[in-house]
Each structure stands twice: as structure tokens, then as C-alpha cells.
Amino acid sequence: MRLTRIEVSGLFGVFNHSIPLNLEDRITIIHGPNGYGKTTLLQMVQNLLGRHFNRLRRVPFDRFSLAMKDGREVVVTKRPGAKGDAESGEPAVALHFELKSPANNNPDFTLDFPAAREGIGFPLEIIDQYIGGLERVGAQSWIQVQTGRLLDLDDVIEIYGDDLPLTTGKRTKLPEWLMKWSEELDVRLIESQRLLSLPVGRRSRRPDTPLGFEPAVSAYSKELAASIQEIQAKYGTFSQQLDSTFPSRVIQKGPAASADADALRKRLQDLEGRRGRIIAAGLLTKEQYSAPLFDPPKAVDDTTKSILSLYSEDVEQKLSVFDEITAKVELFKEIVNKRLSYKELDVQSQSGFGLRTSAGLPLSPTDLSSGEQHELVLLYELLFKTMPNALVLIDEPELSLHVAWQVEFLKDLTRVVKLAAFDVILATHSPQIINDRWDLAVELKGPQA
Fold first, then answer.
1. What pTM, to 2 d.p., does this model score?
2. Which of 126, 134, 289, 356 is most buried (CB neighbours < 10 A)?
């Protein structure tokens, strides 16, 4: 599924926005003055596709819709609900969903929101006791101290749910068509606050230990190292399987009179270059793959040709394990190293991000400036945490970036999108981000006079 248009009417009781998406370049830029709803629109898309309906219903709007390339359209409208929130005095609101299709088979569903969340199963004071870094500011609202973000109960449960004694409770069952539709598109929101991350291993934390955050550059460095080690293990297992069956497969293959010695030599040379790229990317060490590939003489008999042909096929299969991550690491390193001043990023299987100054001194990823961390974190999320054909929503990519970096951002993003194959909607205040690509931009305008 790919989206073609986003529309909202009555946003904040004022704005009507229609945003056609650029399917060819796969990048759409939303820009406009503060307060016109750029960030809110990204959050609404995330909330609808991610089924965060309690968040969506709190946004002031009348009608919200997502149109798809296949002609379908999901429309969400607000209706009076059955029950309001007695504690806060919040009026009752229900969301009505309708899936419009060219076949005129238009299922619909109305979701009402009860006055109190069902299925919590514990007093809310437990949140204050077990979750560190939250400051209670209301009956069901908290400030996340490290980020300044206001969280409601649904936010807290979503972020910290693994560390809270939740019970199943009674939940409103969503219709199958709504579940299936929302699962057709993987959506990822990269928020303006992206330098902090939940720590790795949070599920093994003791319940009486406060749950904090760690810098995203540190978390992603560990994550990348783990991914590389996993691929190396896969490569090792695959290599052992092929090597153990090589003799029997040589016998089964028999002589290859038609094999060309020059073509075999060229193939082995290409594989040697491919292996060199993998080592340079930090995915294999020379110790793990130290011996150069065999360089056959010009004149070889048919039996030798057959053995070399099978050998080259095996090497190609082994190295193919690294194809996807090699291309991503190469682009990641190239872009980051163009931005870093007097520093250089390498990728290492044990530590993830390896950083050194121009004088050769080691650096921690947290020693980078905020702008450098923003660049590294954003690129990592796009290249290594985004699925193919996903929809990525980026809020204010210009944060902490020098003007010169902002000018280059869209060029880099275009290369990333081409490699990783996903769609992007980004919201920005910066004309430098847009640069000369105003053809990708959609301006949010005020109410018509």
C-alpha cells in the first residue's frame, strides 16, 4: 500500500489541508508557518496507521482521510460519544472510520471512548514508584523530565508497558478490515526529539529500578554491533555448510569443458573486490577472511575449471549474506564522514560506531556535538531501522544542523530513499532543507478569507 493524498478539515477548528504525495521521487515536504499543523499532521498519520486512536481523538479536527494508490480511502470523522471523562470534564467523543473503495464495498466502524481506561489493573501511583524520569503534573498526565514531553496515560503505557503490571481487561474489538488495512503499511515517525532512546535490555530490568534513557548514538552503536555479529554468525554457519558438502558436490558436478578460464578468472577477481568492500565496511576482518581468492593460470584442464566454477559459486553465495548491509554501511559512512569535522567514523563489529579524531584519538559517540549526533541518528534510523516500502515521517530534520548541512540534506535523503526504497513525508521550517526542490514541497495555508 502507498498513500497518494492526506486531507484534514477543521484542524484546530481553523485549517483545511490537502497534501498530495510525490510518488515518483518518494519524498514530500510539508512547510508553512508555526501553528499551521505540520507536526500534528505527521502525528495524525502515525496515530491512524499505528492504531493509536485515543491520541487521534484528542486532536481537534472534523474529518481526516488517507487516500491510497489503489483507489481506496480511509475517512475518519468525529461524532458525539456515549461517555465523557467525569474527572477531567472532557466531552464525549467517538471516532467513525469508513473504508471507501472503488468496488463500493464501504465497511465502517464507530469507536467510542469510555470515561476511564479499562484493563489497567493497578493504581496509577505505581507509575510514579517504578518509572524514573517522570514528573506527575495531572491526574493522568506526566512530564518526561529528560525530553520535556507531556505524556498521558496511553503514552506511558505504550513506552513503559513492559515494566508495568498491566492486565488484559476488556478492550473494544476492532473490525478485521480496519486491522488488516492498518497493517498493510509500516509507518515510522522520527520525532524532533531523537537524541534519547530507551535502553537496550529494558525487559530484564528489576521492577524496583527506575527506567531511564540513554543517548540514541550509544543505543544505536550497540544495536549495529549486534546486527553485524548476527550476520557474521550467519556467514560462518553458511560457510561451514557449503565447505562440508564441497567435495561431494565437486564429484556430482563433473568436468566442465565449456567453462572459460578467462571468465572464471574475471569472476574470481570481481569476488575479491567484493570481499574487499565487505572488509572495508567493517563487516569482516582480514583475520576472518585472510586468504586471497585463488588466481588460476591461463591454461587449466576441464576438471580444474569445474572445481573453480563451483568454488566461485560458493564464494558468491557466502558473500551475498553481506550484500544489503554492505551497501547501507558504505552510504552511512560516506554521508556521516562528509559532515564530521576533524573526526572520522568507522564501523566495527565489536563496538558499532568507531570514532577517532584527525590526530588518531578515540572518541565516544556521545562526544559528538548535538548536530553531529542528530545527523548520525537520523541516518541510522533511515538506513537500518526502516523497512522497504515503509512510510517515514520526519519532523524538523534541520534541528541542530548547520545551514550548509541543511542544504545537503535532501540530496543525501534522495540517495538513502533510492537505496532503501521507502516513502518520506517531512515537515520543515527551513528553506535550506528544501533548497532547489520546491517541486517536492506542499505549503500549508491559512483559512480562506
1. 0.83
2. 134
